[in-house]
Amino acid sequence: SQQGEEDPQALSIQEGENATMNCSYKTSINNLQWYRQNSGRGLVHLILIRSNEREKHSGRLRVTLDTSKKSSSLLITASRAADTASYFCATVASGGSYIPTFGRGTSLIVHP
Amino acid sequence: ETGVTQTPRHLVMGMTNKKSLKCEQHLGHNAMYWYKQSAKKPLELMFVYNFKEQTENNSVPSRFSPECPNSSHLFLHLHTLQPEDSALYLCASSQLHGGSSGNTIYFGEGSWLTVV
């Protein structure tokens, strides 16, 4: 299956610490996206990284992509209680239908 | 506000009822989606519509019937559902083959469905 698998499944940290989540996938991709979901709400797109990019930043978010290892990581620096949410990676396969396939997500809890 | 509006937000229905979920997108996108999200499972893609034409149906039981009258509106008609169909149903839209956007998906807030 193309879907990304996030690791860890759950992460609990203190406010101010950094949070790192990883995503692994199996086949070639066109791009990889990270989404966030607050409890009981819809998913919100955070950042997209293309297969020819290695790193992207957006505010306190940093995403890396290693296509040789078929993996990506999402780093949230100086976390806040408001960052508590589930984080999903979604992969868009090369030469495919352009529809992202989502993993199970990482549940992040940031304690104040 | 994501530009994708779903109604109702919560729905409780009996197994013999017929109900519908509604979705409207105000983003000018050409594709709309229904996803199902159950606890401890990956997000499941149910249906995709591209310019009102259904392009994906991921082996969804016939008790779920989608309708896309135009590129801004999407419905999910529900009939004789089972308790295991209880889940969060998410509507989404995107600009398929959208060049620089890389097919970013915009989700609604979801409709919580409970089948009793």
Q: Report the strand count of chain A.
A: 11
Instruction: Specify the overall morphology of chain A.
Output: globular
| Mean of residue pLDDT values of chain B | 90
Structural class of chain B: mainly beta
Biggest sheet character of chain A: 6 strands, mixed
| Structural shape of chain B | globular
**End-to-end gap of chain B:** 31 Å
Query: Pair with the most extensive interface?
Result: A-B, 24 and 28 residues
Strand/helix succession of chain B: EEEEEEEEEEE
Summarize the main sheet of chain B.
Answer: 7 strands, mixed
Beta-strand percent range of chain B: over 45%
Low-confidence stretches of chain B: none
Weakly predicted, low-confidence segments of chain A: none
- Give the quaternary arrangement of the chains: heterodimer
What percentage of residues of chain B falls in helices of 4 or more residues?
under 10%
Residues in helix, % of chain A: under 10%
What is the tally of beta strands of chain B? 11
Key traits:
heterodimer, A: about 110 residues, six-stranded mixed sheet, globular, B: about 120 residues, mainly beta, seven-stranded mixed sheet
Brief rundown of the structure:
Chain A has 112 residues and is mainly beta. Chain A has no helices and eleven strands.
Polypeptide structure, described:
The complex is a heterodimer of chains A (112) and B (116). By secondary structure, chain A is mainly β. In chain A, 0% of the residues lie in helices and 57% in strands. Chain A has no helices and eleven strands. Chain A starts with a strand and ends with a strand. Chain B has no helices and eleven strands. Chain B is globular and about 45 Å long. The chains are: A mainly beta (112), B mainly beta (116). At the A-B interface, strand 4, strand 5, strand 9 and strand 10 of A face strand 9 and strand 10 of B.
